[in-house]
TrEMBL record:
Transmembrane segments: none annotated. It comes from Datura stramonium (Jimsonweed). This is Malate dehydrogenase. PANTHER family: MALATE AND LACTATE DEHYDROGENASE (PTHR11540), MALATE DEHYDROGENASE (PTHR11540:SF67). The keyword Ligase does not apply. Belongs to the LDH/MDH superfamily. MDH type 1 family.
Length: 339
């Protein structure tokens, strides 16, 4: 049986390789910014994913070392390192999923928008290359400010004539990961059973966790819900302050990024009912991009799911976040078209 073959220690390495490629189609994943704080642990986690057959690690520097290191792990994927812009095309060619954690992180006192001036240009140039070398890949945008970098990517792809709204995702999984952890702690339920949708965007009050829809349900007070909401919204800042100038979330982000990329791969492979929250092109509100639950399929977004019933507190939060999210989206669109 399959189970017996995988647990056979003597042949596990070869057998697992063989098994994985028999049961899952070939899939190439490229990570742009792979030598960074997120990039390195994310490269590790994607190397552990049996759905990946080729793992391309790209950065402006440092990737030969990361790739050599990760490549020794005895899992299915072949690992290739690419350093410097002249190798970007090779890193991207044939990619099914491109994960982008390239760019500078926050220091204490900064907002995510303070990263715009540097990261907008990085994202724009990477997306220009994606349009050329792997126009059909699913894009998992991690670089901040996500509320603006996703609209930048959409404009770059539109200009190149390759835009497909079903293939562009802002990664907001870390907000969901945090909401689940904080909720489980407060509600005293098993964290492994918890589900909490998080909608809106990925910065401050634009992050709107829907604790009224959290499962398993718990009888939390209004004050407790408010405290959980604020902690989720400020989760990134909590890490930035604790790291005291050494960057922002990297390990929890790598975990979240690996979960989201895995969901994309499962969707591509035709696994049914794969649903994750993500910041995508949307008609759920009057804003052109919005994070909500998304069903993933063979072409990327299969269905953008609605918000469901909101509490009065969540309705207020939704109205309050719209002006900031709208202006961050517009800032990205304007940048892409002006530069
Ligand atoms: P980091 O500085 O540790 O790593 C960034 C990497 O990007 C570096 O290795 C750098 O060389 C590389 N890079 C820079 N320009 C590049 C280019 N043109 N092409 C390829 N690579 C390039 O930063 P980090 O902690 O890994 O964070 C990366 C980004 O992710 C930041 O913008 C951060 O704000 C964001 N982030 C997003 C989330 C989220 O939830 N979406 C969570 C955490 C961090
Ligand atoms: C996070 O949510 O941890 C990231 O967006 C990084 C940050 O700057 O907070």
């Amino acid at each position: 049986s399959l189970a017996r073959r995988t647990s056979n220690a003597g042949t596990s390495y070869l057998t697992r390789r063989g098994l994985a490629s028999e049961s899952a189609p070939d899939r190439k994943v490229a990570i742009l910014g792979a030598a960074g704080g997120i990039g390195q642990p994310l490269s590790l986690l994607m190397k552990l994913n049996p759905l990946v057959s080729r793992l391309a690690l790209y950065d402006i520097a440092g990737t030969p070392g990361v790739a050599a290191d990760v490549s020794h792990i005895n899992t299915r994927s072949e690992v290739l390192g690419f350093a410097g812009e002249e190798q970007l095309g090779k890193a991207l060619e044939g990619a099914d999923v491109v994960i982008i954690p390239a760019g500078v992180p926050r220091k204490p006192g900064m907002t995510r928008d303070d990263l715009f001036n540097i990261n907008a240009g990085i994202v724009k140039s990477l997306c220009t290359a994606i349009a050329k070398y792997c126009p059909h890949a699913l894009i998992n945008m991690i670089s901040n400010p996500v509320n603006s970098t996703v609209p930048i990517a959409s404009e770059v792809f539109k200009k190149a004539g390759t835009y497909d709204e079903k293939r562009l995702f802002g990664v907001t999984t870390l907000d969901v990961v945090r909401a689940k952890t904080f909720y489980a702690g407060k509600a005293k339920v098993n964290v492994a059973d918890v589900n909490v949708p998080v909608v809106g965007g990925h910065a401050g009050i634009t992050i709107l966790p829907l604790f009224s829809q959290a499962t398993p349900s718990a009888n939390l007070s209004g004050e407790e819900i408010e405290a959980l909401t604020k902690r989720t919204q400020d989760g990134g800042t909590e890490v930035v302050e604790a790291k005291a100038g050494k960057g922002s979330a990297t390990l929890s982000m790598a975990y979240a990024g690996a979960i989201f990329a895995d969901a994309c791969l499962k969707g591509l492979n035709g696994v049914p009912d794969v649903v994750e929250c993500s910041f995508v092109q949307s008609t759920v509100t009057d804003l052109p991009f919005f994070a909500s639950k998304v069903r993933l399929g063979k072409n990327g977004v299969e269905e953008v799911l609605g918000l469901g019933a909101l509490s009065d507190y969540e309705k207020q939060g939704l109205e309050a976040l719209k002006p900031e999210l709208k202006s961050s989206i517009e800032k990205g669109i304007k940048f892409a078209n002006a530069n």
